[in-house]
Amino acid sequence: MPMSELEELSSEAARPPEPTWRPLSDVSGEPCGGELLCCGARIRKHSTKEKTARPEPITPAMRQAWVEVTVLGVRQLKTYNLQTPSAPYVRVAVPGPGDGGGEFRTLSSSKPNARNANFIYRRVMCVEMAEQARFGPQLDLRVYNAGYTSDTLLGATSVDLSHKLPWNPQEYVAPQSELFDDAEQRQREAEAEKKKAAEAALLEAQEDAEDEFADDSGAVGVSFGAGDGDNDDEDSSDGESIEHHELARRESAVVGDNYQDSGVGAFDSLIDQALPEIHEDVTYKEEQERIAEEIEHEQHESENKGGLLSMLGARFSSVDTGLDTHVDYKLSELPITFPSQWAAADYLAGREWWVAQGGLELERYLKTRPFETYPVYRGKRHPNPAKSTLREVGHVKAIIRVLDEDPQFENEPFFPMALLQPQIYAIRVYCIRGANLQPVAGTSCDPYVRVKLGKDTETREHKKKTLKPDIYETFEFRTTLPGPAELKIQLKDYSRFKPVHELLGETKIDLEDRWFHKQWQQLDEKEGNSKNKLKPIEIRALRKEGSRVARGQLHMWVEIRPEREVQREAPVELSAPEPQEFEVRIICWKTKEVPFECGDFYAEFELGASDRKRSTDIHWRCRSGRASWNWRIKMPITLPLASPEMGRLSVLLWDKDVVKWNDVVGQTQLDLYRWLLKAYRENRSVNVFKEINDALRRKRAEEAGLPKERGPGA
Predict the structure, then answer these.
(1) What are the pLDDT digits (tens) for 305-339?
(2) Four-residue CA torsion sign, 66, 72, 78, 79
(3) Distance (Å, rounded) from C-alpha 515 to C-alpha 485?
(4) Residue 298's pLDDT is what?
(5) What φ, ψ does residue 634 adopt, rounded to 5°?
(6) CA distance 616 to 604
């Protein structure tokens, strides 16, 4: 603690400053990872022989409190010195002044297995705690492995109890308030840090105001370094240097009400205006003005040219559709309904309510965890990651409460221990489809699903060359809850030439946090006469370990059922939509306003990534830019499509050359994916332009207050 940073007290009886946490270091100056809550102050003495009185005791005011610890168990313990834990147990200690603390340990356990041992132990300790939250103790939590001769420390952590004190309303966090979503947790922490920073800034401003008032009452001038010595010149005896006066003079000459910094520093603005402009700068400005005028002109023309192709996503907005297009509408604004997926299965009924609300992971609906998770660590922390040996070796699930009265007088237990009795459950995982997968290499992948729960693993056949695979697979496991509860769902890229397949992304679900959650229990699996919602379909982000960047999504849902109910109710049957043959028919009439004086034009069409392209005949020697074909094209297609990219119709206009290669005049794309989906689900022919025309008439009739007309897509 540097002496210059210590606060100076006005007298011996003055109140000491507030203590702060300071990092500890060893004799060589290397940080050792610990912190000490302390403070220091200076007291001015008239002489070195002056004696000061004994300082007042700083022991904070204490009060009686009860600490309730409910230990569920340890999860995912890692090996220590190449030895797997065999009989772990947890030791909990709450320090206190004198004998005012408390300590206990659970029994060692290896059920259901040693790496995920259950303790299901509840203990209440009566301890002495400080009134001020700043002096709140740190609960010490250690995990040991019971041995024949000695116990081995597997990992340890400390829990700050200052946020659990009910008499500290500013920082109090109620039990079972730990959030599922890390983003919301980080937002809470950021808001807390922002609040602390604002309070610190306000306090600093008050201190500065007091210091400024003290300086004004006793100071004569302001010293800028050159006026502090005894040999200063008489002209600068007021404490300001000559350079300071010169800068002030120049600043007063240029700074005014309408002053704008020109970037030349302390020089006068007239000097900047007298400099000649560089020729390249003048040319660049003129070029930028010309480009801005062209963009504005193009935007003005595009606003005056609406039509049906603009609704389909085409780039040509000047096609004559025969309609009055003085008002443009987006396709989403027209009364046309589009299905959301190819499958029209019964299992979707009642399970799309969460996706319809814009929900993603179901943790955002549940929000908080029923248990608190405390990671345990082993090793030594160092500011330099290369020298740090600290690593996470597992975590402890528990509920810790600090109460100002004995919990035995509560009407109901906070968490009934009877609900925590281990039972066997059936876990059913329904994977529907993946979306927006990011390939590891290349532009596509062969994904397949791998699901792991505890030591059990299941995989399915891979899908060929797609980034949006239709999976429609069901996985079923057996597990003990409480117990091994981490459900890991991975999408991997299959390769027949590699022994290890690349991971595309994974998602993890804690089954304990779901089964013991009140809102999860309120979701009903049986439709019947129950008004509760069914377990919904959720869209889970796929990520890689240690990364927050999503590499795709997985549409799925999970069921947790007791073993006794599995025989009565079979799993939901997921089936992929049956393939059907359709035909895309195109009539290519003509072109207009092609900016070529003379050309041999023909149009080419390609749907998705089909091997065969279709083209019209050639309009030879077209001089007016109005090529005419009146050509009919048929393109067979098998639905459903593997991905939306397969539903894009590419249209290219070519200029035929006999001697050399052909030239591309222009191109555009039409997104037919939704229209193909509509034709498949409704099992009928869909005339795209007629559907849009009918929807436009109904839209305009509705705006005009005319009777509504129902169309095939309404």
Answers:
(1) 444 444 444 333 333 333 344 567 787 788 888 88
(2) positive
(3) 10
(4) 60
(5) -120, 130
(6) 7
Closest to 380 in 3D by CA, of 369, 370, 372, 390: 390
Confidence of residue 23 (pLDDT cuts 50, 70, 90): confident
Burial class (CB in 10 A: 0-12, 13-18, 19+), 88: buried
Q: Which of 693, 711, 669, 616 is nearest to 312 (CA)?
A: 669
Residue 170 carries which DSSP code?
T
Report the alpha-carbon distance of residue 139 to residue 374 in Å, rounded. Answer: 12
What 3-state class would DSSP assign to 398? strand
DSSP assignment, residue 134?
G
Q: Residues 34-52, buried b or exposed e (16+ Cβ, 10 A)?
A: eeeeeeeeeeeeeeeeeee
The per-type count for the chain, helices as H runs and strands as E runs, is 12, 27
CB 240 within 8 Å of CB 255:
no
CA dihedral 197, 198, 201, 207 (to 10 degrees): -120
Closest CA to 321 of 707, 595, 329: 329
Nearest by Cα to 181 from 565, 548, 600: 548
Query: CA–CA separation, 348 vs 620, rounded Å?
Result: 55
How far apart (Å, rounded) are the C-alpha atoms in residues 126 and 106? 18
pLDDT above 90 covers a percentage of the chain that reads: 33
Q: Two tokens at 625? A: 């830019």
Instruction: Tokens for 522, please give them.
Output: 């309120």
